[in-house]
Design a protein that fits this description.
The structure is a single chain. The protein is α+β, with helices and mostly antiparallel strands. It has two helices and 13 strands. The strands form three sheets. Strands 1, 2, 7, 10, 11 and 12 form a six-stranded antiparallel beta sheet that branches. A five-stranded antiparallel beta sheet has the order 4-3-5-6-9, with no helix packed on it. Strands 8-13 form a two-stranded antiparallel ribbon. The longest helix has 20 residues. The relative contact order is 0.22.
Length: about 210
């Protein structure tokens, strides 16, 4: 009976440790801090440039994906200059610890997260964005990404540039489940240490009864 009681405690503690029933359950996490995913463009003198970065359930890349972030730059020496990083449909800006769910106002059309419209201007964003992937049946997988975005044009009027970097991202692969910006899965080793430690304490108490 004591052994069964101990196993019951271990099972209960394990459920708590792996995040069953909370916003950490089902999280898929990508950490690019050691090798960031970056798209960068530069328009020289009279010319334009475009770029793109994609996000999907398999992570961030420069080739293809469900959601798209566009970069554009235009420079005309001595005349007009512009640059922008546009979050596509399905994105929104956010801050750490924001709740991501159906209540978020996601973009319906591309919307700039940074932009400039004249030489000598700079616009910078270093924070989070949130997104949703189509899960089918009118449901979505909600997630977040930590990014830096920059747009600028030289004061001499020769260049305009835009760049975007994805540092980290995560999404909840449980359809329509809420997610918190910046929350990542606990390392398995930490969870197991908690399980073993608490189980050992409870086991000692049971055997001493």
């Amino acid at each position: 009976m004591k052994i069964k009681a101990i196993m019951s405690y271990v099972y209960a503690v394990a459920l708590v440790s792996i995040g069953v029933g909370n916003v950490k359950a089902g999280l898929v996490y990508y950490d690019y801090t050691s090798a960031p995913i970056t798209s960068s463009i530069l328009a020289n003198s009279v010319g334009s440039a475009v770029g793109v970065l994609y996000i999907s359930t398999s992570g961030a890349n420069l080739v293809s994906g469900e959601l798209q972030i566009d970069l554009s730059a235009y420079a005309e020496k001595g005349a007009s200059h512009s640059a922008a990083v546009n979050l596509g449909a399905g994105f929104a800006t956010a801050s750490s610890n924001d709740l991501i769910n159906a209540g978020v106002s996601f973009n319906a059309t591309p919307t700039p997260v940074t932009s400039i419209s004249a030489k000598g201007q700079t616009d910078f964003y270093d924070d989070y964005i949130v997104f949703r992937f189509n899960a089918g049946g009118g449901q979505f997988f909600y997630g977040w990404a930590e990014i830096t975005a920059n747009t600028s044009a030289n004061s001499n009027g020769k260049d305009a540039a835009a760049d975007l970097t994805i540092k980290r991202m995560a999404y909840n692969n449980t359809a329509d489940a809420s997610t918190i910006v910046g929350v990542i899965p606990e390392p398995a080793s930490v969870a197991m240490i908690l399980v073993c430690g608490i189980a050992a304490i409870m086991g000692r108490r049971i055997f001493n009864q």
